[in-house]
Every structure is written in structure tokens, then in C-alpha cells.
Task: structure prediction
Amino acid sequence: MQSDWLSQPAVPLNETARLTAEKRQAQLTKPPGSLGALEGVAIRLAAMQGVTCPMLEQVQISIFAADHGVVAEGISAFPQAVTQEMVRNFARGGAAICVLAKQLHTDFEVVNLGTVEADENLPGVRNQRIAPGTANFTRQPAMTAEQLMQALDAGQQAVARAVDAGCQLFIGGEMGIGNTTSASALACALTGMPPARLAGPGTGLDQNGVDHKIRVIQQSLDLHQGRLDDPLEILRRLGGFEIAALTGSQIACAQKGVPVLVDGFIASVAALAAAGINSAVKEWLLFAHRSAEPGHIRVLEALEAEPLLDIGMRLGEGSGAATALPLLRLACALHGEMATFAEAGVSERDG
Amino acid sequence: MQSDWLSQPAVPLNETARLTAEKRQAQLTKPPGSLGALEGVAIRLAAMQGVTCPMLEQVQISIFAADHGVVAEGISAFPQAVTQEMVRNFARGGAAICVLAKQLHTDFEVVNLGTVEADENLPGVRNQRIAPGTANFTRQPAMTAEQLMQALDAGQQAVARAVDAGCQLFIGGEMGIGNTTSASALACALTGMPPARLAGPGTGLDQNGVDHKIRVIQQSLDLHQGRLDDPLEILRRLGGFEIAALTGSQIACAQKGVPVLVDGFIASVAALAAAGINSAVKEWLLFAHRSAEPGHIRVLEALEAEPLLDIGMRLGEGSGAATALPLLRLACALHGEMATFAEAGVSERDG
Result:
């Protein structure tokens, strides 16, 4: 199982731009290193955008929504109907990510890949319905091979639209009741860690609920045992449409040379799959925040990722990435607009 | 030694506004707690501003600059001339904080309280010259009682100007070569911790430099021993004009009901002194970031402060606070603009 485009190479980072950006950072009127992580972010973005001074004016936020058959196992604190209710909330601008997108002047779209019941005509929502949710992966694979490809392609298509609009940074978000169970199962299969290290409360399970979720994930891993050694097959058996779309978007960004700002637990698990499918993708990923979902720290470790924020967010929808976006923009502004020691006539450090 | 205004009471927080803000947070379309620290920030700002939905459009950044006599002991990686050179860089808009203030659309001013050599007419720089730097506190008190009051008053005056301009949040920054040595000495005297736990590289000392700095601070603590039991007297003997101005600004903000976003190591030590002088000040302080300067974590612990960012910044100038400002603004926007469950027709959690 392989779609043609997935294995196409990523754009190589521009090492000349990285070096000129590093040189510029060292000349700015501040003690070297004193802007902390903002310095490295600006330099990485320079290497990605192939310029000494990167810009992040044009940012795309695409939210992928879908339902999960595994919800039948009672693994979520919220009812399944909330996925579609939140799609309507996105369309009306009432969700957290809508408020953030408006404040941050980003482009924003929602792609419905398969809620159980879908409205046809919601403003700002694209209907790319694959099925009314995935199958229950405690009993069978979550998707057919064709469904997986449709979901991956939906991510690629969102990136293609973003590139056409001049996108300088891509944020993918997700909505899908039950998707921390799917993401935890995926992370188990992709890393080999047991469910107890990766499953957490999601939208708000208590300890009994988390224990049940761990048993459900273990049962699924047992069912699919022996067929979990390829990242695409793992995604097909245990994933969700919206998670696979995030994976597809991350691979497509690397292939189009667009930096990705990765959100929280679900988006990071998607990145784990993306890096498994095409290892060069990792170079194009910036990590926004460490989620309060306890498994996220382990997924970040597996990705060798150092996120910018650690403020206890765990909402999804791309909200953590959007919240970190101003830090990236300030990093670019500082890098591009501060005076150098020579320009400002400021003395450098003593001998 | 006490100026009339310093002991005036702080404005009490508005507990009614806090409760209505908490109630509103609980109704927004997200799992409770899922916006992490952004929820508590919005609620605290509501209690400070006395409204259900706080706003941070009008923000003041005031930078206080001054020189330090203790620089004669060779405790800084950069020469003393850099303080004034950076004041010129502020005036020309080339410093980090200028770029941040412009990006964030804040008001911005620089107050020169006493660089060794001062230019008289720099745009955007107020000259309130107390002396050409403090005295070397390894040999005598850094300031006279009158000089200390002038510095504290300068902070109060900056807040008065900000209030006149409709300020909804105050950020105080500092510039003064040598001021991590002064701040470390102050923190030792205010907390009782030894210099080795509070002194660090500042703008970039190597380990030998840090060891020397520790000895200089210990020598100063020994000289002033027995006279370090009052926070104002500690500030007079070991402080700097710009640090005392920050302390004055923090006390004045609490008295005028203006939230303060505290920057890094120096501003937090100023807050330690402010809380020592007038304990109600602490309720008006929000902490922006944990600096890479190693003593900062201990000062934050002493203040029971939990900063938002931890990204290795250590520049001063108010730059860490400015970098955190977008998070506070997004917290307010989310709090004020998200739909409630009832408005959006979204189901609440099961059970």
C-alpha cells in the first residue's frame, strides 16, 4: 500500500540561508544567545524559506474533522455528536481556534472528512466525506486502504490550496471525539510503548475512564498484532480520517517547502507517522507546545522535538499551535529588524 | 526611611468580576481546563480590571536605564559604555524591545535615570538624571536616601503617565551594565540565600567570571552586614536606579489598579523588593517568563510565581514580558469571544 506522492522527496533545507541567518543573529545588538529559543526558530525558518530574514505573514490553519468508530467502546468524556456540533461551532466562529485565527489574521478552513451526521452547507466548511466515521478498530481495521488514501490526499490538497494562497507556514488542527484513543493506539504501535504510557484523560476522563481506555487500546493492539510494522498500515488499522489527513499535510508541506507548526498530542502522533513514512519530513516541523495530555511528552521525545510552550493546553483544534504563532512572528521580526552592533555603534563584549 | 506614597494600600482585586469570569470560562465550548494557563490569566485579569471580559489593547512599556558603580569590580562581560550606547539604540528603534513594542503596538518610552555619560536630546528618551551611575556598593551604599526616593518616584511617575494614557497593562524594562550583580546582591539580602545560588553569567561571563562575581557580591554583603533587614535599606545599599524605579512602578501599579507583566531576573528581584515594602503588590503581578539566568528560578520560587514562558531568554529590556504579551491578549480574546455551550448548541460532557 503506497500512494505515489507519499514517498516523493522533501525539499532540502537551504544551508546557505541558514548560515547567513546565523551570522546575522550573531551581529544583533544583544548578548549572543539572549533571545533563547527565538534565535533558533528564526534561523530554522530562514533555512526553510531560503532567505536570511524569514516572514510569517501568510499563515494557513486547516482543521480536519471526523468521527471514530471506537467511540462505541465508551472511551470519551463527551458524546460523539459533539464532533459535528463543533463543526457547526467552527462555521459560526465560536470555537477557540476561530477566535485565534481571527486575532492572528490567518487563513482558516474546516475540512469535514466524515462526521456521523454531516450538514451539507456550512460556511467555511469543505465536505470531503470519506465515510460516516471510521470503523471500530477494536473489531476491524479503522479504514480500508482506499479510505486511508483519501484521507492522506485530503491533507495534501489542503496544503496545495495553502501554497496557491502564498502560505508561509501551515498549521493543521483536528476535531474528532475519540481521537486521543486512536492517537494513543497509533503511538503505541509506532513506538512500541505500552498503552499505559500513552493514554490519558483526553477531553476529561477520570482514572476509571483512563483505565478502561487503556484496556480498549490493548485489546486493539492484540487484535491487529503482527500487522503493525508499517506506518501506513498502522495508520489504516488504528488511525482516524483527520489524523491521516494531518499526516498527509505534513508530508506534503515538506515536499512543497512549507514549514509546519505542529499542534499537540494528536498532531504530534500524526507527525510520528509522517516521519515513519518519509523521514525527511521531520526537518520541516516546528513544535508549538507540550500538551497536558500525559502521553504527549513521550511522543515529543520520540520525535526529538522541543516545543516552545508548556502552559497546560490540551484542547486540540490547532489551538496550541495558533497560540505559539505570535512567538514565531516575533522571532522573525527581531531577527529581521534589530540593529547590528555596527549599525548602532554599540560596543561588543570585552576581549 | 519611607516615602509617603510607598505604604499606601493597593487596590483590592474585584472578587465579583473574578467569579463571573470563572463562571464564563466554565461555559465556553471546550473541555474545562483545556486552555491551560490561558484560563487563569484571563480570570486574574478580570479580577484586576474589574470586568468579566478583560482587554489589553493599551499597553505601556517603560524602560529604565542607569549605570552601576560596581562595574569597577570587573563583573560584566560588556563594557559600561554599552548602557548609554543602548539608550541611543533604543532612541533609534534598533534594540529588541523597540522591535517588540512596534510589533505589539504598545506605547514605549525610555527613562534615563543616570548613565555615566548621557546625551541630552534623544527622541523618546526622558532624562531624569539622578547621578552618573550609582556608587560602588562593594565600598559604600549604592545610593543616598534621597537618590533612592528619586528612583522610586521615577517609577511611580511612569505609571502615572501610563494611567493618563489609558494603560491596561504595564511592562517595566531595564538597561544597566552590571545590573545582574546588583540584582543578585539584592536577592541575597532579601531572601537570605548565598551568592552562589543567585549569581549567574548575566550578559555572558564564563565560569571564572561568575566565580569572581560571587566573591564581589559576598564582599558587599559582608560590608553592609547588620544593615540589611529593611527592604528599602537593602535597595538603597545594593540596588540600582533602574531597579528601584521598577520597584516603584510595581508598587504604583498596585495602587492605581494596573496589572503588571513582570519581565525576567532583574524585574523579578525588583518585585521581591516591592512585595517586601508593600505585600499587597504581589496580587497585581503576572510573571512573563523564566529567564535562563540561573538565579531567576529561585527568585520566582520566593515569589511563588509561575511564569508563562520558559524559552531561555535572558536579554532584559522588558523583552521577555513583551514576548509573553500576545499570550495574555489571546487569553483575553478567547475568554471574551468564544461561544458558550448554550450559544453554540454543543453538548456538554456525559454524566
